[in-house]
């Protein structure tokens, strides 16, 4: 059952593809609050679990926190935060009833999931221009399937997208990349992709390659292809505002960059320095922007990752000027005022980055209307990807590009994948990765993953191996790292063979994973599910927050605690425990329903095969002689 309600004049976000007749009156569950802005409220029963909200902080069960979606470039994914880079406004209330709620709205929106009032879910947004979809089905899985049917089929990457990706901000030259590939080859560590971060560009300008550091780039792309490796370059949202540079000049001449209400170009700072933003909501501008990706295709590139597309802004020219006027240099001359003027300067500067007030300063043109950026903010990453995908379709007809984005909105799941941004080399972020996967899947993102080993901070060997032990099951499998932290390629660690064996395991799993992923996409299903999806009557299963079902045949229970020799696992039914000693040797044990303690060394990935589901995994690991 689906109900659709419209309030005010909503933006066509292109999240939903199915036509649903509009309903009038009050929704059959919960109610709309009178007053300014948008407000929705519904009861939560004591035993209800609330799933969803896609890319976010905290656990599988979202209850007990306020989440706010206003896409932001914030690398501190701590539990005190309220949101990350994406706005996935879908919730699933699982209890006696099974209810799905989707708030289709591209501006800032908050979800108080029983935090302020234990037994209440309340949703609020500053403007009452919203479409609400209310779904009710007989089970959690059915709710998700109905929602996914509404939003359309998920992106399936080319198969090589499931291969192992090695990345680091700081591979500066072709020689750096050659080294990485050579070391993987020599050690027999499978590798499909090396990501190129902003280092490959000429002065951080999109659609350029530094000819100094990457001479004859097309030949280099070819050379890597011959090694079985594809290069995946990054593209940032900000375009360098550099006079005389053809991309900027052309976009400016044609009026494709975002402007302020007074018609001036909106200038802000990001990696290339003074930058502008393409109005990706304007069809013509988007088409032009998409065509720029043709440059990469002409070099032999078959995909890319879109970054900084929240969009991230370090400062805006207007904000800088205003602060300068408020605290003019003359002030510093007066010694007695130094402290106060410095304090004002400092707090002003601290507000520069990603300030929503800046988002009111410039506008977009969409479907014949003018919107402030703030109104459409959460859609920017999606529409940037839409332009990119169309560009790739034109430049590489008939071939699916490999695409993933940092920022996203529901709807983008039809076009590309996502990676979950700047996590850290923390054990808690391995857990966060585990807990985010089902939520992302519910919102349509099947091709998804986190930076394995963590992006920020230094990764230790045990964390890397434990993370890989989970990562081998995750569709987007990338080891990526920040340039200021310890390199974390396999050869930086002592246990190189253990690392290699994990990657080899992954390659054995790819045919299985790819099939499961395609079947999830075709059936509008998740790849990763909370245990309660299949064991709804089991109280214990409903409370487990750190184990996942993978397809209909496996259960995962990763170890995410440092120095732990093992962990407790809840088995909701009898299962076969499989411990991978390496990529060709396994230990198995049949286990009874209940709580068990599992021991596994850092490099020993393990999983559970569900009762009667031995066949699929038996085909992958023939050594197990199961299910035939
Ligand atoms: O401000 O391009 O999330 O993966 O390495 C940081 C440099 C910009 C953020 C991305 C990260 C990437 C980094 N970028």
From TrEMBL:
Q: Which InterPro entries match?
A: Gal_mutarotase_sf_dom, GH, Glyco_hydro_31_C, Glyco_hydro_31_N_dom, Glyco_hydro_31_TIM
Report the residue ranges that make up the Glycosyl hydrolase family 31 C-terminal domain in this protein: 527-612
- Keywords in UniProt for this one? Glycosidase, Hydrolase
| Domain (Glycoside hydrolase family 31 N-terminal) ranges | 44-112
What are the GO MF terms of this UniProt record?
carbohydrate binding; hydrolase activity, hydrolyzing O-glycosyl compounds
* One Pfam short name: Gal_mutarotas_2
State if Hydrolase is listed as a keyword: yes
Please give the SUPFAM superfamilies that the UniProt record associates with this protein. Answer: (Trans)glycosidases, Galactose mutarotase-like, Glycosyl hydrolase domain
Which residue numbers delimit the Glycoside hydrolase family 31 TIM barrel domain?
155-515
Which biological process terms from the Gene Ontology are attached to this UniProt entry? carbohydrate metabolic process
- Output the superkingdom of the source species: Bacteria
Q: Which residues cross the membrane?
A: none
Q: Where is the signal peptide?
A: none
- UniProt record similarity statement: Belongs to the glycosyl hydrolase 31 family.
Q: Return the protein name.
A: Alpha-glucosidase
